[in-house]
Amino acid sequence: MDSNKASYNAGQAKGQTQEKASNMMDKASNTAQSAKESMQETGQQMQAKAQGATDAVKDAMHNK
Question: Taking the CB of residue 34, how many other CB atoms lie within 10 A of it?
Fold first, then answer.
């Protein structure tokens, strides 16, 4: 009886450890995805600002 209980407890602990590891991997994946999206957004903003600056220079040259 005691060995069955010990085996059951070991199985429970293993399952909980696997679940925690899985949750940590999910969190890491979500964090990586958020960082990727943030970088894409920053890149798009920089691209828009560069385009705006280019347009401003073109306007200034045409208005001379």
Answer: 10
